[in-house]
Amino acid sequence: MKDVLISGRRIAQELGIFFGCFVVALGLNIYSIIKFKTQWSELLTTLHITLAVAIVIFVLLAILRFLLGGVARMFRRKTS
Amino acid sequence: MKPDSPSIISQRTRRREFLKQVAAFVGSTALLAELPWWSSLRAAPVSDAPSNRVRIGLVGVGSRGNLHISHLLRTPGVEIAALCDDYEPHLNAGLARVKGAKGFSEFRKMLEMPNLDGVLIALPLNLHSQFTLDAMSAGKHVYCEKSLAYTIEQCQAVANAYRGSKKVFQVGHQRLYSPSYLHAYELVKKGAIGDIKQIRAYWHRNGNWRNPVPSPELEHRLNWRLYRAYSCGLMTELASHHMQVANWFLGEHPLSVVGYGSINYWKDGRELYDNVNVVYKYAGGVHVIFDSLISNRFYGMEVQMMGPKGTIESETGRMFSETPPPAPGIVQLINGIERGVFETIPIGGPSWVPDLKKNTKAAYFPQEPNHDDGTGLALAAFANAIRLNEPIPGMMEQACHSGVAVLMGQMAMEQGREVTWPEDFKI
């Protein structure tokens, strides 16, 4: 069985993307607190929901990146 | 008296610690102004020395009597000195559980026993008043199981006898000592649900409510709850608890009652209804609705107190606000997106929103470890009151209000008319 090697650079890149997703989820939380006029303490009390939203965004983004990567590879193969 | 088993001693030690906490709690709050029947619990539990012991005689060693034995064995400073039952198998089974207790088949003989402080009556309803009166005449303190008596006249006779006796009287309405009901009462007094506008109480079971009978001639004796000569069935055996709660929370007795009852499922020779539906009217237009049936247990048992600000379900120990706090903003946002994606847009159809039950999140009452439904504390309060030699304030009112109310309900159903509170009834 072939070993799959994930480079340190790739891990750092993925962590960076996840951090970006978390910032987006936090932004959504701030937006919803303002929109629905709820308590600012929810930034802490709903941290678990923010984290879940960040994971969902990260997974959706990963699927999108995978599909886009596949299309790009196919395009490069045809042109070479 | 023979020594108790290690298990009993350990249970009694736990109960003693619990009673110490209760005594501290009762002494440190304004509780007694609202719940005067808790007054004897202010006294800390005593040691088990013979001089401290309250000697109790239990009459009626059936299912409820056996439960009382379990509680009394755990109560510090209490000795079950005698057991009385004219049904030998029950008496023998009881004596096997209580080491050193003296057995009697005749109540009067038990009353003659020297140094007996109090009696606990766990008999069929039709015997409550006579046994209570006999015990009071013999100078004994009395704990009588609910409901108070078989007729309104008998309720009056017990109240009259108590008035001049200076003895302790307690009725088996353990919800008066239940932490869940205490919490519910506190919430109502704080105005958490606003003024109570309706109480809906129900007790549903699915079973024939029969005890196994070894021979046919014992049918009425062992299944007395099913026969009119001994009981008023669902009203006195079940509704009495909920009516006591309703009277307590509303602070008054009902003015009148209407209702229907029938035997529509268990047509097995019983005389008392297997389903009852009664509506009690209180001052100010407040109604208490009680229904009970024993052919469907889906809804179980509950007392729902409804006010304009919320609903309390005191058996489960929870409250539902009419205006619950909104969900966190992020949850509202997600729900909005979800609705936008998945919800179908109705074309035509009803333009109104059906008034289905709202899925409001409940606020649960705090749980009290080491506590039962209130029976243990009720018996400890009885023993303490005997030791302090002070009557339990407010107890006879609770017994009479509930006892008379359920008899009114039974009369309303049997006679097919509105029955009003007996104006000349005096507590």
In short:
Chain A is mostly helical and 80 residues long.
Descriptive report:
- The complex is a heterodimer of chains A (80) and B (427).
- Chain A is mainly alpha-helical.
- Chain A is 82% helix and 0% strand.
- Chain A has helices at residues 8-36, 42-45, 47-79.
- In chain A, helix 1 crosses helix 3 (47-79).
- Chain B has 13 helices and 15 strands.
- Chain B has helices at 6-28, 31-34, 63-74, 88-97, 107-111, 125-137, 152-163, 179-190, 219-222, 234-250, 329-342, 375-388, 395-415, and strands at 54-59, 78-84, 102-104, 118-121, 141-144, 169-171, 198-204, 256-262, 275-281, 287-293, 301-307, 310-313, 318-321, 363-364, 419-420.
- The two termini of chain B are 40 Å apart.
- The chains are: A mainly alpha (80), B alpha/beta (427).
- The A-B interface holds A 28-29, 31-36, 38, 42, 45-46, 49-50, 53 and B 326, 328-334.
Name the descriptors.
heterodimer, A: 80 residues, mainly alpha, 3 helices, B: 427 residues, alpha/beta, 9-stranded mixed beta sheet
Largest sheet of chain A: none
The ordered string of helix (H) and strand (E) elements of chain B is HHEHEHEHEHEHEHEHHEEEEEEHEHHE
Distance between the termini of chain B: 40 Å
Uncertain spans of chain A:
none
Strands of chain B, total number: 15
- The number of distinct helices of chain A, counting runs of at least 4 residues, comes to 3
Distance between the termini of chain A: 30 Å
**Strand pairing plus helix content of chain A: what structural class?**
mainly alpha
Give the rounded overall mean pLDDT of chain A: 93
Radius of gyration of chain A (Å)? 18 Å
- Computed over alpha carbons, the radius of gyration of chain B is 24 Å
Oligomer: heterodimer
Morphology of chain A: elongated
Helix content of chain A: over 70%
Indicate the topology:
The complex is a heterodimer of chains A (80) and B (427).
Chain A lengths: L7 H29 L5 H4 L1 H33 L1
Chain B lengths: L5 H23 L2 H4 L19 E6 L3 H12 L3 E7 L3 H10 L4 E3 L2 H5 L6 E4 L3 H13 L3 E4 L7 H12 L5 E3 L7 H12 L7 E7 L14 H4 L11 H17 L5 E7 L12 E7 L5 E7 L7 E7 L2 E4 L4 E4 L7 H14 L20 E2 L10 H14 L6 H21 L3 E2 L7
Helix pairs in contact in B: 3-12, 6-7, 7-13, 10-13
